[in-house]
Amino acid sequence: MAEAILSAILGDFISRAISLLIGRFTSGKESTEGKLQRISHLLIRIHSVVEEANGRHISNHGTLQWLSELIDGEYQGCYLLDSIGYGSGQEEANELCDGDKVVPPQVSTLSLFNPAKRVRVDGGTMRRSNKFVSWRHNVGAADEIDRVLERLQGVSHDLREFIMLLQNCKSIRRPLATSIFREGQMFGRHVEKETIINFLLHEGEQSPAGELGVLPIVGAVGVGKTTLVQHACDDARVCNHFAVIILCSFSCVYDVKNNQVTLIDPLEFVKRNSFRDKRCLFVFENVDRHKKHILEDLLQILRRCCKEESKVIITTNNRRVANIGTVEPIILRVLRCAEYWFFFKAHAFAGTDTEGNPSLISAAMGIARKLNGSFFGAKIIGGVLRDRPDPNLWCKILRSNIGGNAPDG
After folding, report:
1. Can you give the residue range of the structural domain that contains 74?
2. Does residue 391 fall inside a structural domain?
3. pLDDT tens, 107-117?
4. Which PANTHER family does its entry note (predicted)?
5. Which of 73, 214, 247, 289 has the fewest Cβ atoms nearer than 10 Å?
């Protein structure tokens, strides 16, 4: 048995070494189209594994980090391919925008990015060979193609091992998606969502005995804290685990299970209801330094009146508020350019084929960059663009001042 394992390891090592040598020998001779074709094929493989992982309950932190790297590589590759197609519509978009030039994505924006959720990849991605001409003589772009290809080759080497790990993770029954718009709401946050769910489902492992578990989620305005928490609360695993799920904004409470909104102070709401025999989840949104003092008093009451194993999530843009938590906070950062582009694209195009509208892609990429990673902006502006696919309107939006702060998404 030991000899068989050793033989398999040596065989795998030799195979990878030969592949590496062949790759180095042929990299200078391979055409740009060939490299992009390989990127497209690698993306299909990686995407299929990511889809499988998204249907599993992954509780191991290391496996989640591994998934994060796969998603990261997927987004780099897909953003690169979209950026190449961008060039063919730039001139047309500039004309539509009355001389207001649409600045193409810089090569530097294709550097390493944080994890993201899912993108849709198919073999048709590479039917754009006529758009590669301007890239063939761009040294910086050629270097970026090589970097992305190397990155994808690196993360795809151990896909078999990753798939084997997934087999030990419990399958999640997910409803069939009916709209890419809904799927698009969680781009970039799958790993964070699973971290929240692991906190909610694990009883007594992450907090001192008898202590009410409190998880802070910290991030700037518009980064998507509310969206993330809503998706975690909507997950079937969480809904089945908690008898009561309450969202509190300090002026009203929303009972998720009964779909009821009550204009009442959360402290008064807790006093009027009995939760002693129920496992509860309370979510307190947008907690600032002033509300922190109110929440501290409220937590004391919840510790006494809620059943053990109840949990609390707070969202805040103030790191000093996070010390109220009983576990390490989740820090949400603004999605980088490639991640945010696919989040925005899902809202603006809603799954439609964009191949025939290169000028719209050009305008949309410019709009996405001006929104500075705002989840709220992607939902609102993207929805407007989706309902009115008029190039003139899109160019007006591109010229407008849409890059300011937006409410939390």
Report:
1. 28-170
2. no
3. 333 332 333 33
4. NB-ARC DOMAIN-CONTAINING PROTEIN, OS10G0134700 PROTEIN-RELATED
5. 289
